[in-house]
Amino acid sequence: MGDDFGISRRTLLRGSLGLVATVGVVGACSAAEEDGPKKRATAWTFDGSVYGELTVDGGTVYVATVGPDLLHALDAGTGDTRWSAKGGESTGTEPDVVTVAGGTAFRVSQDGLVHAYRTSDGKRLWRTGPLVEEGEPDRPFVLGSVLCVQLRARTDDDGKMLEPGVVCGIDTGSGRVLWRSDASWLFTPDPKRGVLFKETPDGVAACDPATGRVRWHVAAARGEYSPSFALGPDAVLLVSGPKGNTRLYAYDAADGTPRWNVPALDGTITATPDGGTAYLHDGRGHLHAHATADGRRTWTATTAPHARDEVVPYTGTVLLSSGDQYNGEDGRSIGDDRPGYVLAHSALTGRQLWRQDREQPSWTLPVPVGRLALVGHDTAWWAYDIATGEPQWRVPCDGALADDPVVRDGMLYGPDTEGVRAVRL
After folding, report:
1. Which partner from 6, 36, 245, 386 sits 20 to 30 angstroms from 220, CA to CA?
2. Model pTM?
3. In angstroms, rounded to a whole number, what is the distance separating the alpha carbons of residues 353 and 347?
């Protein structure tokens, strides 16, 4: 549901590839960037064509590049290349994604191939596929001894399907496909209970990852957009229903037993880590908080139009950032640079605590770490003080920001179209 109200970061990046290659506009630094907060020195950099997510595990940064199509394992502390391995035949329009488990790195490519590499030396253990001719891979995950993979269906601008997608379970040891089904708007693991949540024709199902069979199922009334879903520590939360008559439902995460349902905003759900609160945000300026014990709405707030519909709860605050396309309060476009903003609201009352407006768009959600919120603007990572909103420092990049930064063990790893920047926090 996160991409229904605007252009996703990945979609916009795909549309920018030709711009980067031909005129270099996306990678150029603006005057406003030069007037920003002090620059933070990088601990190391890695040069390569990166158009997707990073994976950091066990002191290693895994990054997939295109032209050439390689998976690189980098030392997280120094950036030195430990090994590089050949992948699929990516065109660069859909970034490959990687997950790591049990000493194996699993890579899913848009050409429908799945590769398994030994993390110690990069030796390829097996290759499976192609599962589809072409698709957009979601980040895979491992449940038990099963690698769960999704390649989304490829469609044209009018929504007509060009290539079907797939969800499947693959044996992590051999690469054998155990089961497969149609692609889903929902692809969420529940490691605690060992189930995969996915879409069914009439709702949401908790599936056995080894067989794909449905363990339990709940119905979801379809509306204008796909239902919104969130998984808490002990509850499944679902917003569904036709526009103007949507409801928030809570089900027991173990067996799907209904708990309660209440009228609710047609928005995206974000549950707090402790599961006590669910936030609904519609990306058009409306934010509601609900107590998950009984569904009671505790407060409502006005944010700003054209914000990302996901929010980030963190230490008494709710952090938001503008979407890739930003317009003014009256809905009209402001300039050619698509200005952006970052917001913080009180988690207790919903009151706006601060707002920072930027001349550069916000490419990412805020990533909280300690007292800082990290946000990607144009061609730089910015750090904001969560208490005051004041910018603290920035890390300029050579290209367009490729995805959210990853923070591990006091280091920020930020992917951009020209490589990776590592910064000590």
Report:
1. 6
2. 0.85
3. 10
